Amino acid sequence: MRAKLLDQFVAKNQKFFIQYGGQGVPYLMEIAKFKKTEESLKSFFDFTFKTLKEIENEMGGKSNPLIEQGLDLQSWIENIKSAPPQKYLFRVSISGPMIFILQTINYLLFTNRGYPVSETLGVTAGVTGHSQGMLSAILFSLGGEGEQFYQHYYKLLKYISYMGYRAQEAYPNFEISPELVAEFEKAGISSPSPMAACIGYRREELMEKVETFNKERAYSDTNKIYISLYNTYQSMVLSAKPLSLLEFYKEYQAEMKSKNFQFVFLKTTAPFHSVLLKSGWDKLKLDAEKMGFHYKGSDLKVPVYSIHGGKNLQTFPVLAEKLFFDMVVNTLYWDNAIKYAFEDSSVEAIIDFGPGQAIARSSAELLAKNGAVSKKVLSLANPTDWKVLFE
Asked: If you write DSSP's letter for every residue of 132-163 in order, what string do you get?
């Protein structure tokens, strides 16, 4: 049975724009819920558990210090109390594949509940993903069904697993010393990391402050602060070593507090969207070749828009390298990624596949700022939007 919303869009010749979120949000309870309640996903979960075990073995198993508690999603969701601590679950070598799995679950529920693959592609103007969500955007655009879907999913799950692993290898000293933790606590920060959201400053203001800060300290590239994600016009993310971020926060703490601006550390263990992780490509390139990750832009059935320059990935002859640099190294400009949603008059709604609703809110803000207030953002993580999508 087709969803009413799909029928409406087909009848009016309107289009969806599809987006996926990124890292930094909890995922385990959500996956466990779907495992318990969605019998239609049994084959998917069986395939996923088998593939994760294969990846874990390839990486050396629990003797590998980057995955020392394994990738045993099956046991974690069947007995939540046995799951590793949050600190481990947010490690990028772990959270990368797990968030991709959750997004794929949402995609399967979407297609099974009224949005057939071929018909949905026909009313999709484009797809993008916030950071690692780009890989889920690729899966959507490939449009595989049946056995072909699982062939794509297998390669993409492997790719995201190795991407997170190689990114963490490039930034191996992610454990923060007790001495530095104590310094953070003095500044009122309990959970430091190599990425922090800075909310309130206009883009030009924050760019000037970061440039001045780096110059005054004559920082090398490895110690510099990078504005790594431009989420909205007054919400950005900084990536750097935690000590550099602490010094920046202390420098502007009084000013930020007086203006009610926010400085919030993200739940991650690597400084994404900065040159600090660039070396990860050297090994991932070999991994991609070994796993047969040979996707080309011409394989994509609908446009997938880059989160860096906004280009359509259908124009790229090779996707493996472009995906790594967009998801790991290049600066993210979210307005570039979704600009077609507010420029294309046929696009009537953005559908957000999560996880969470943070990126849906960012997109809604950008739509409003760009004069597209009539366009809706519907999030699968929002119960009200869920009813609209699946009635």
From this structure: THHHHHHHHHHT--THHHHHHHHHHHHHHHHH
